[in-house]
Design a protein that fits this description.
- It contains 4 helices and 7 strands.
- With 164 residues, it is α+β, with helices and mostly antiparallel strands.
- The protein folds into 2 domains: 62 residues; 81 residues, PH-domain like, CATH 2.30.29.30.
- It has a 4-stranded antiparallel sheet.
- Strand 6 and strand 7 form a beta hairpin.
- Helix 1 packs antiparallel against helix 2.
- The chain is elongated.
Length: 164
Amino acid sequence: MEGQIRLRPPRHRVDPRAVRYWMTGEAISNVVVAAVLGVLAWLIEPARPWLLLAVGVALLVGVPYMIVMPLWRYRVHRWEVTDEAVYTRTGWLWQEWRIAPMSRIQTVDTARGPLEQAFRLSSVTVTTASAAGPLKIKGLDHEVAADLAQKLTEVTQANRGDAT
């Protein structure tokens, strides 16, 4: 089994700002859901009691989720890059550990949505020939993400594997 890549926990956490980023995203979702239900309650008088109840339930579930989920994700989400592979661990309730050997990497992309830009964060997507889809590392400092993409590009260019 010498030279074989083994599943192991990745070392690096995502950036601590990712917690606020995830909380803000959930807060926006909660506000949108509550606002839509509130407007519908105002417009549709016969359904008003049920719609107001739905607003209450949405907030009762959404606010704790908005607080707990980002903290849990921060505890779970990990990433690491070695000369041999990219390792990730993600998830909330269902956790996923993935490895992408350098020889299998096809593309490396970075992305920054408007909310990520506000928090100076980026996501790195490592695409392989795997049927499981790409590895995504979300919540990285934008400079760390750029350096990571550069390193992965250099390593994969130097390591001409089959990438299929």
